[in-house]
Structure formats: structure tokens, C-alpha cells
């Protein structure tokens, strides 16, 4: 992905409060994290979303499908090392 396209997508950063809550849940409420670190985690979250989406599109195209569905996204997550069924199951 070229830099200008990523810069365009970076406009869609997640709310800082949401990222902060996620970090506190994973690290514990007594842990402190700087704004720079939260910003970097936010940008990494966007990058991760872009990666998973692009890989799921490739997977659906390999299967000659037009629609990217849960199965393709789940397959990409599993092959990337994310196996937590509790969190990844659709609500």
C-alpha cells in the first residue's frame, strides 16, 4: 500500500477513548500509557484492519466470490495466529 493511500485511510482513526479503554482492559487499570503510545496503538489498529480486510478480499477472490463474508475473515484471522473463538464469534 502506498503512503498516500495509507495517509488517506489514517483519517479514520478510532476514538482515543475507545483505544484507551481497550489498553486499560488488557494492561490493568493501574498501568499508565502515554498519548504517543496510544496514538501508535491506534494507527496499528487501523493498519491491522486494513491488512485483515485486504487478505479477506484476496481469499474471497481466490474462491471466486464477490462478497467477503465471515468465513473468509475468520480464515485470515486463524492463519494469522488469532484463534480466540470467544472474541471473534459474531454477535
What does this structure look like?
Residues 15-71 form the Transcription factor CBF/NF-Y/archaeal histone domain. It comes from Cryptosporidium muris (strain RN66). This is Transcription factor CBF/NF-Y/archaeal histone domain-containing protein. GO terms for molecular function: protein heterodimerization activity. The chain has 91 residues and is mostly helical. It has one domain (3-88): Orthogonal Bundle (Histone, subunit A). The chain is 67% helix and 0% strand. The protein contains five helices and no strands. The protein has helices at 3-9, 16-27, 35-62, 70-79, 85-88. Helix 3 (35-62) crosses helix 4. The longest helix is centred in the middle third of the chain and has 28 residues, at 35-62. The radius of gyration is 15 Å and the shape is flat. It starts with a helix and ends with a helix. The model has no long low-confidence stretch (mean pLDDT 84).
Briefly characterize the structure.
By secondary structure, the protein is mainly α. 67% of the residues lie in helices and 0% in strands.
Topology, element by element:
Blueprint: H1 3-9, H2 16-27, H3 35-62, H4 70-79, H5 85-88
Helix pairs in contact: 2-3, 3-4
The level 1 CATH classification is Mainly Alpha
Main beta-sheet strand count, sense and barrel state? none
Question: How many DSSP H or I helices?
Answer: 5
Within CATH, the superfamily carries the name Histone, subunit A
State the CATH architecture: Orthogonal Bundle
InterPro entries: CBFA_NFYB_domain, Histone-fold
Pfam families: CBFD_NFYB_HMF (PF00808)
Protein name: Transcription factor CBF/NF-Y/archaeal histone domain-containing protein
GO molecular function: protein heterodimerization activity
Amino acid at each position: 500500500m502506498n503512503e498516500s493511500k495509507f495517509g488517506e485511510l489514517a483519517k479514520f482513526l478510532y476514538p482515543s477513548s475507545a483505544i484507551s479503554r481497550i489498553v486499560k482492559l488488557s494492561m490493568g487499570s493501574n498501568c499508565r500509557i502515554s498519548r504517543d503510545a496510544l496514538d501508535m496503538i491506534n494507527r496499528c489498529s487501523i493498519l491491522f484492519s486494513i491488512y485483515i480486510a485486504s487478505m479477506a478480499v484476496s481469499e474471497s477472490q481466490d474462491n471466486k466470490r464477490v462478497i467477503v463474508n465471515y468465513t473468509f475473515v475468520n480464515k485470515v484471522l486463524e492463519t494469522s495466529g488469532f484463534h480466540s473463538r470467544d472474541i471473534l464469534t459474531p454477535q
